[in-house]
């Protein structure tokens, strides 16, 4: 069978970066994306931290059409009918080099696809890959509809539910507990309104996280990011939780409840809903990372389980970009040496270990287990909100001393063995 | 005085509705004193039809050439353009029917002028004349100015009122366009008529349309019964046609037919934009859908958020009862 | 057989179209695709070539982005493509569009010209017939079936309700209607070929025309402004059990709206 150098399956960040890198190295590469355009099926909160990835694709990071650089972080802790908000800002974040940027995937991915095409990659949308082709026990190409295209290496960057990884025998089907669903809405708001409302200068951005009753006791949280003239708002909820604990809430219903909170409305009121999307996130951490390579194939991005859902934040984009580039570099090396065997391609994992990707995944191996304790989303938020409620309330009766108030509320919620257990577990975070 | 020539399309012994509307409109223009109006037609003309037409127009010219007995774009275009040129017509108007839209562009080119198709409104007395026509499937309307002469226009059915003029007794003339030998290169082999003799969707005043909410092809009987009771034409959505429950000819929507009836009833239709584009200019819309949040309610005057399997037969019965009461 | 297909790149059917504040322009979301009806025409051309042999050449009038539509045509299997690049003429009326395309076609050798019955942006349905008239060719419109043999064509034209079976000698112009065929999905190898191919461009001056012929002031017709569709008032939901609601609906339609 005639073979081209590489086929990349999936037009998200991992796939596009891999295709870009391969084309830049002068290799013939096709990228197949099942959506109408790269980015059309991708969702992020979102914000990208550029320091980890700048070294991999400096020319991309430095000229990418990001939205705003984040100068303020907000955490809102919610109970029914009350909320506590913290804000943190840092002068350093206002100056270059910027640490993180909010991003809109449709725009960013489309731009990245153009960059990859400009380097000579064939980025082909509306093509779903149905199966792998095998030759002598190695992956040798793909089948899409009735077409069979041979390739020396296939890079599977087909997202959190990656069927190619399963087809290649590199992983078992996902369990519901391993996945979370993210629902996102984008609201249009005038640039100046955003800047005034959030207290930002031009091109400056804010990032917000919401924890507590917005997920009604389930693992997850809400997020808010400011883009140039839109706000990205959404919720992440564990699918396992939704199935088991649900108590009658559906994900869209949760989302509606979240948006209606006054703590959210204060930011989004007057905005026009422009887009609605949902996506699946792998949240099992390093425990669910599949085998990353086999003869003729590598796995990158969400398909490789490279996502960290820490409840308060989901990191995936940086891993996608870095792993996509490392996959491409491994392929180039393998093709140069005419060896695409499993042994040769195992150098991919070595690269990942020597980068931040696998180490960070390892560091946060237990984070999901720690955070997947209901108390984080029910008891602690309630405690904090009730504490401040009591502290701030001045009623008709004589007021209690502040220390006594605090102790009473703490005793009610958190001065117990459960909290101790949580603290001990939290050491693993 | 500027001369208006109206192309009257006939089907059997009936004039096309769009042609009648334009005859009425042309008669109004003639009354203003600024225009004179004439009508031309082809093919066989019964005495009854002739009489009807002569009460709506001051002059009717019928082309008798045997080559023009059946429709051909080249034949009709040559004859109409030739007449218009010979008589110095200022305006040539026709209904935006299948035939009208097919051959009028050729007329325009023969006369070295432009054209404006499928208009829904006209400002005849403006200088230059302006017309309103839908674009992007009706998402937007354009006001088009026509500085060139003559003005060649096709008008969407149901766009002009059919106010029959009074006291007209037109003059009748028969003519031969002549020099058609060798000018017509298409040959009509045969016509396969559509099943049934209900009014075509594009000309219907009353339409009852069904969508996937009907669940199965045989349930379309509910739609047919209501349509029959009302004297309406049956329409369908794209998904129903794709599922082969109904013929392509019944499809209302962007890639089907565009309709503007007085009353459109849509049952079991969600309101996908490509369907809405085909019926949004309907005067009164009643939507029936089990889901109170169905998008179609945004495009309706009246809505029933209920089970169509009960509502449709109930409506049919109610209408039959009323008819009996007289 | 030499088959010529005329295609137009139009905004995607799902693209947002808004009237600008001035009322004289439209703000259209920049997502484009080949006009739906032209896809049927192109598919038919490819089938004719597969059956009779020959070549399929695709011509389009448009701006620089129109090249994408021509690449899609090549990806589907067209042999050649040409872009007549002129934004003024591309934005002009049916007459000017037909004039330019006719000039380009005059230089071509062809047996069949296929194109869509109308473009889904302008919705005019005039250009193919005007081209036929300019070139002195017969045409059959709104075709749902086309058979070619021995220099002759038999076409089924679908006028409202009825189907007319028409015979015509070639060369002739045919306009494609939905139902003519199911357009094929380009193969990956086709897309790769299309991405690499060089598509020649032609200017209107090359065709003996000048830009200022297309400016609105010199056109036969011109758009002076855009208007939004008439808004319907908010829906009146009829309450009650199905039978009650049905009866009330009939009453409203018969006695209040007087439409039945």
Characteristic key phrases:
heterotrimer, A: alpha/beta, FAD/NAD(P)-binding domain, D-Amino Acid Oxidase, Chain A, domain 2, 8-stranded mixed beta sheet, 7-stranded mixed beta sheet, 19 strands, 27% strand, B: alpha/beta, Rossmann fold, 2 domains, 5-stranded parallel beta sheet
Structural account:
The complex is a heterotrimer of chains A (429), B (326) and C (260). Chain A is α/β, with parallel strands linked by helices and 429 residues long. Chain A has 18 helices and 19 strands. In chain A, a hairpin with a 7-residue loop joins strand 12 (204-212) and strand 13 (220-226). In chain A, helix 16 (379-392) packs antiparallel against helix 17. The relative contact order of chain A is 0.15. Chain B has 326 residues and is of the alpha/beta class. Chain B folds into two domains: 2-175, 3-Layer(aba) Sandwich (Rossmann fold); 201-325, TPP-binding domain (Rossmann fold), CATH 3.40.50.1220. Chain B has eight helices and 18 strands. In chain C, strand 9 and strand 10 form a beta hairpin. Chain C starts with a strand and ends with a helix. In chain C, the strands form three sheets. Chain C has a nine-stranded mixed beta sheet, sandwiched between helices. A two-stranded antiparallel sheet of chain C has the order 2-5. Chain C is α/β, with parallel strands linked by helices. The chains are: A alpha/beta (429), B alpha/beta (326), C alpha/beta (260). Chains B and C meet through helix 3, helix 4, strand 7, strand 9 and strand 10 of B and helix 4, helix 5, strand 9, strand 11 and strand 14 of C.
């Amino acid at each position: 069978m005639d073979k081209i150098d590489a086929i990349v399956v999936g037009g998200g960040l991992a796939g596009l970066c891999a295709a870009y890198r391969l084309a830049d190295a002068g290799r013939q590469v096709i990228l197949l994306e099942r959506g109408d355009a790269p980015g059309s099926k991708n969702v992020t909160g979102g914000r990208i931290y550029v320091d980890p990835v700048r070294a991999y694709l400096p020319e991309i990071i430095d000229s990418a059409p990001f939205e705003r650089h984040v100068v303020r972080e907000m955490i809102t802790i919610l109970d029914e009918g009350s909320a506590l908000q913290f804000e943190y800002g840092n002068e350093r974040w206002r100056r270059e080099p910027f640490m993180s940027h909010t991003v809109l995937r449709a725009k960013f991915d489309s731009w990245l696809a153009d960059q990859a095409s400009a380097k000579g990659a064939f980025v082909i949308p509306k093509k779903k890959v149905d199966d792998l082709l095998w030759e002598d026990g190695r992956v040798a190409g793909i089948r899409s509809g009735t077409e069979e295209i041979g390739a020396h290496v296939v890079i599977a960057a087909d997202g959190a539910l990656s069927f190619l990884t399963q087809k290649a025998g590199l992983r078992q089907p996902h369990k519901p507990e391993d996945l979370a669903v993210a629902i996102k809405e984008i609201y249009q708001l005038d640039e100046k309104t955003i800047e005034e409302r959030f207290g930002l200068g031009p091109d400056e951005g804010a990032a917000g996280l919401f924890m507590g009753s917005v997920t009604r006791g389930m693992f997850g949280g809400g997020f808010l990011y400011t883009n140039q003239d839109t706000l990205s708002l959404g919720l992440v909820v564990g699918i396992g939780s939704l199935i088991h604990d649900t108590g009658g809430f559906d994900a869209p219903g949760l989302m509606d409840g979240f948006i209606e909170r006054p703590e959210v409305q204060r930011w989004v009121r007057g905005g026009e809903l422009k887009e609605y999307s949902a996506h699946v996130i792998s949240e099992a951490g390093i425990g669910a990372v599949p085998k990353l390579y086999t003869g003729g194939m590598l796995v990158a991005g969400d398909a490789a389980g490279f996502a960290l859902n820490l409840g308060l934040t989901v990191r995936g984009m940086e891993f996608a970009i870095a792993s996509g580039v490392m996959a491409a570099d491994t392929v180039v090396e393998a093709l140069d040496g005419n060896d695409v065997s499993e042994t040769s391609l195992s150098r991919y994992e070595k690269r990942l270990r020597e980068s931040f990707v696998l180490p960070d995944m390892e560091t946060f191996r237990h984070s999901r287990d720690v955070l997947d304790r209901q108390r984080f989303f029910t008891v602690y938020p309630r405690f904090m909100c009730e504490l401040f409620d009591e502290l701030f309330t001045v009623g008709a009766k004589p007021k209690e001393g502040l220390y006594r108030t605090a102790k009473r509320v703490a005793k009610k919620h958190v001065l117990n063995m459960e909290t101790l257990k949580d603290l001990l577990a939290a050491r693993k975070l | 005085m500027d001369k208006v020539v109206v192309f009257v399309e006939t089907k059997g012994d009936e004039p096309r509705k769009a042609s009648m509307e334009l005859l009425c409109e042309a008669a109004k223009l003639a009354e203003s004193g600024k225009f004179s109006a004439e009508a031309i037609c082809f093919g066989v003309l019964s005495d009854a039809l002739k009489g009807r037409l002569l009460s709506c127009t001051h002059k009717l010219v019928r082309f008798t050439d045997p080559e023009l007995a059946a429709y051909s774009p080249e034949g009709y275009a040559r004859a109409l353009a030739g007449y218009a040129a010979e008589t110095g017509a200022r305006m040539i108007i026709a209904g935006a029917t299948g035939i009208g839209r097919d051959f009028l562009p050729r007329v325009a080119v023969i006369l070295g002028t432009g054209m404006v198709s499928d208009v829904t409104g006209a400002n005849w007395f403006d200088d230059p004349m302006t017309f309103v026509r839908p674009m992007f499937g009706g998402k937007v309307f354009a006001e088009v100015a026509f500085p060139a002469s003559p003005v060649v226009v096709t008008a969407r059915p149901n766009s002009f009122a059919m106010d029959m003029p009074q006291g007209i007794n037109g003059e009748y003339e028969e003519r031969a366009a002549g020099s058609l030998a060798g000018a017509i290169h298409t040959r009509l082999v045969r016509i396969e008529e559509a099943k049934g003799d209900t009014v075509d969707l594009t000309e219907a005043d009353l339409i009852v349309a069904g969508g996937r909410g009907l669940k199965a092809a045989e349930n379309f009987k509910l739609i047919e019964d209501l349509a029959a009771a009302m004297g309406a034409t049956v329409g369908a959505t794209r998904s129903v046609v794709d599922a082969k429950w109904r013929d392509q000819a019944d499809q209302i929507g962007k890639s089907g037919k565009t309709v503007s009836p007085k009353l459109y009833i849509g049952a079991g239709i969600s309101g996908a934009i490509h369907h809405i584009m085909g019926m949004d200019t309907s005067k009164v819309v009643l939507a029936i859908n089990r889901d109170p949040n169905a998008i179609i309610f945004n495009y309706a005057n009246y809505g029933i958020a209920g089970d169509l399997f009960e509502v449709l037969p109930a409506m049919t019965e109610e209408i039959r009862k009323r008819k009996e009461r007289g | 057989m030499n088959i010529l297909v005329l295609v137009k790149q139009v905004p995607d059917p799902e693209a947002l179209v808004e009237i600008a504040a001035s009322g004289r322009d439209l703000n259209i979301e920049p997502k484009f695709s080949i006009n739906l009806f032209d896809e049927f025409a192109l598919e038919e051309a490819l089938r004719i070539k597969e059956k009779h042999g020959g070549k399929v050449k695709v011509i389009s009038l448009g701006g620089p982005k129109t090249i994408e539509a021509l690449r899609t045509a090549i990806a589907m299997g067209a042999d050649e493509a040409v872009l007549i690049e002129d934004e003024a003429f591309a934005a002009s009326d049916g007459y000017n569009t037909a004039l330019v395309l006719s000039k380009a076609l005059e230089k071509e050798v062809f047996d069949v010209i296929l194109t869509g019955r109308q473009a889904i942006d302008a919705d005019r349905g005039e250009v193919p017939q005007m081209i036929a008239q300019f070139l002195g060719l017969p045409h059959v419109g709104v075709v749902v079936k086309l058979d070619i043999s021995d220099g002759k064509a038999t076409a089924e034209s679908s006028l409202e309700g009825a189907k007319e079976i028409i015979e015509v000698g070639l060369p002739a112009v045919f306009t494609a209607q939905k139902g003519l065929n199911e357009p094929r999905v380009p193969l990956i190898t086709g897309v790769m070929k299309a991405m690499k191919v060089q598509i020649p461009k032609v200017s209107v001056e090359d065709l003996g025309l000048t830009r200022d012929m297309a400016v609105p002031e010199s056109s036969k017709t011109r758009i002076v402004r855009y208007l939004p569709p008439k808004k319907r008032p908010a829906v009146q939901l009829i309450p009650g059990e199905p039978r009650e609601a049905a009866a009330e609906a009939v009453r409203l339609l018969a006695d209040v709206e007087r439409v039945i």
